Structures are given as C-alpha cells and as structure tokens.
Amino acid sequence: MNEALNQSKKLIVLTIIYNFVEGIVALYLGIKNNSISLLAFGFDSVIEITASLVAIWGVSSANKNVARKSEKIISYSFLALAIFIFIKSAYDLFNTTKPEATLLGVILATVSILVEGPLSYKKLKLGKKLNNQVLIAEAKETLFCLNLSILVILGIGLNYLFNVWYFDPIAALLMIPWLIHEFNEHR
Predict the structure, then answer these.
(1) From CA 79, how far away is CA 179, in angstroms rounded?
(2) Are 146 and 41 in contact (CB under 8 A)?
(3) pLDDT score recorded for residue 137
(4) Confidence label for 1 from pLDDT (cuts 50, 70 and 90)
(5) Most CB contacts within 10 A, which of 24, 30, 173, 182?
(6) How far is 126 from 129, CA to CA, in rounded Å?
(7) What percentage of the chain has pLDDT greater than the value 90?
(8) Three-class SS string for 12-57?
(9) How far apart are CA 67 and CA 187, in angstroms?
(10) What is the overall mean pLDDT for the chain?
C-alpha cells in the first residue's frame, strides 16, 4: 500500500511539472490570440496545479477532515473554471470577439492528450486501489484537462483550418456541463 501511495505522489508531482509548462504556454497563446479555449486550457493548468498540491496534502494526511477539505477545494476549482468559461465565451460570442487562428495551440493540446491521458488513467487506478477520494478527484481534474484538450483542438483547429472563429467559444462552452457534474459529485 505504501508503494502505491508513493507512486501516486510521484504521478502528482509529474502532473504539477507538466502543467506548469503547459499553463504558461497556453495562457501566453490564449492572450496573444484572444482564444477562450486556450485561456480556459491555461487556467485549467493552474487549477490542476492547485488541485495537485491539495491532493498531495490530502493523500499525505491520515486525517479524514484534511482529505475531505482537499476534495472540496478541488471540486470548487471545477466550478470556478465553469464560471470563467461561461462569462468569457458569452462575451466573445455576443461581441463577436474573434480569436486568431493558431497552429501552436493545436500542437499544445495534442501533446497534452499524449501526456495527460496516461497520467489520469494511472492516478485514477491508484486512487481506486487506495480507496482515496482525493486522488480520484485529482485524477478527474487531469482527465478534464484531457477532455478540454480535445475541445481545444476542435475549437481552434476549425478556426485554423476554416476560419470559423465562433467554434472557439462554443467548444469551451461544451465543457461546462461536465465541470458542473464534477463539482456536484465532489463538493
């Protein structure tokens, strides 16, 4: 059991390192290209770093109250991102704020799928093995980033290929129901 716990901590640290780099690149590209999909992607990286730090705290503690508080903090990160996506997407759609097309954003999201898919799967498997709800919630945050990567590719990819700017905010809006579901499940 200790080996599984140590492995989960190593995966969480790897998640933090990867998301730090991914977040900087996504936020830069999102600001530069006015892309809500990339901004949400970048903010999700920041949220995922926070969730990972909280998860290390929760996984390391034998205190059930600490674990429960950790899970709640992670759940509220889902809600915060849903609110941000809704506000920015609605603003962009109503004001016809067109994002610039970016191939680098598509590449970043593709790399994220290749990195975060295996990471989320391994953390989820370990969380279930350890029966640790904090680790499961943190793994779902990583899985969300994987799903967001797919929508980022869809939104900015269609904009890049066909110059249909509104797919960027629409793709971001499609994540809100999943975010609300995860918020409700872990709060």
Answers:
(1) 7
(2) no
(3) 81
(4) low
(5) 30
(6) 5
(7) 48
(8) HHHHHHHHHHHHHHHHHHHHHHCCHHHHHHHHHHHHHHHHHHHHHH
(9) 12
(10) 88
For the chain, which domains are there?
2-186 (1.20.1510)
Do 49 and 16 form a contact (C-beta atoms < 8 A)? yes
Query: Residue 143 has what pLDDT?
Result: 84
The whole-angstrom separation of Cα 64 and Cα 175 is 31
Residue 130 has pLDDT above 90, yes or no: no
Q: Which of 158, 151, 159 is nearest to 40 (CA)?
A: 151
Phi, psi at residue 10, to the nearest 5°? -65, -40
Q: Which two tokens stand for residue 129?
A: 């093995």
pLDDT digits (tens, 9 = 90+) for 174-185: 989 988 988 898
In three state form, how does the secondary structure of 97-155 look? CCCCCCHHHHHHHHHHHHHHHHHHHHHHHHHHHHCCHHHHHHHHHHHHHHHHHHHHHHH
**27: Cβ–Cβ under 8 A, 6 or more apart, which residues?**
38, 39, 42, 43, 45, 46
Q: Is the pLDDT of residue 131 over 90?
A: no
